[in-house]
Amino acid sequence: MNKLSAIVMPVISDMKESHIKQQLLAYFPLQEEQFSIIEETFRALTATKQDPETLRSFFHSWSQTNNSAVTVAGLSNRITMMVHENQAVLSEHDLFKSVASLNRIVDEDLAVVGQILHSVLFYRMATNISGDDSWLSHRYLCPEAKDFKAWKDKNSLRNKDIMIGLLTTLVHEIYTHGEVEFILPLFENWLKTNSDLSEQDIHLSLAWIAVHCGPTEKNHFFHAVDAVYSFAKATGLSLEDYNLEEIITTYLTLKADVMSTLNHQLVQSGAMLQ
User: Fold this and answer.
1) Is 137 exposed, middle or buried (0-12, 13-18, 19+ CB in 10 A)?
2) Which region holds residue 137: left if phi is over 0, alpha if psi is between -120 and 50, else beta?
3) Do 47 and 273 touch, CB atoms closer than 8 A?
4) Residue 274: which pLDDT band, with cuts at 50, 70 and 90?
5) Which of 133, 134, 161 minimizes the C-alpha distance to 239?
6) How far apart are CA 183 and CA 216, in angstroms?
7) Which residues contact 273 (CB under 8 A, 6 or more apart)?
8) How far apart are CA 6 and CA 35, in angstroms?
9) What is the tens place of the pLDDT at every residue in 128-178?
10) Phi-psi region of 202 (alpha: psi -120 to 50; beta: other; left: phi over 0)
């Protein structure tokens, strides 16, 4: 069976040789324990029919770990503020290129291309599968998901060093590529086997996952890479001064903490149904 790392690592290997590539190759393989927790949770979710309350908790907390369009757009805003505030840079052209690359990450999310906001696709998926849209209530937010989002928003958008935000975005995009590719066949089989949804409703419900598969998230990752290098060129920052170990480790540890809690809820719910 496919594993997250088996999806992520070949994409990283396709990068041009660089300090960033070596950092990704060094530290992502050290996260197998976190990958395993995440994989186990998605497999537990899709192994059987789930209680609606459990599904509502799952979708609300999970949504907090994969919704990044606003932070990417905000990071773009921070870079353009440098021009607005007349901050000295080596190349405004390269600064603009970094913004252009960030904007390509959120084109689909914001319906700049395509016909529908991706937040609407997620809403439809979660609502169809859980039965109604009460999953939106904050009462379904687990503390670990709140912690993940707080850390990621701070690192991606509010860190004083914009490069940290760009590198966090890069890590998020390559991880997300692995996640959507990993879960699509699981969700397809789950809904066909354990739901009352029609074939058309299953297709519509899986659109949020499906549109991120194939080249979409992979391209987003390489746009994030381009944004990093363009920003470094524009500002004169040396990427060799940055170590991705903390970003990668913290990101996947906090993500695994969320999924571990959701897995525990799945186990508890299953025990109560027996």
Assistant:
1) exposed
2) beta
3) no
4) very low
5) 161
6) 15
7) 51
8) 11
9) 999 999 999 999 999 999 999 999 999 999 999 999 999 999 999 999 999
10) alpha
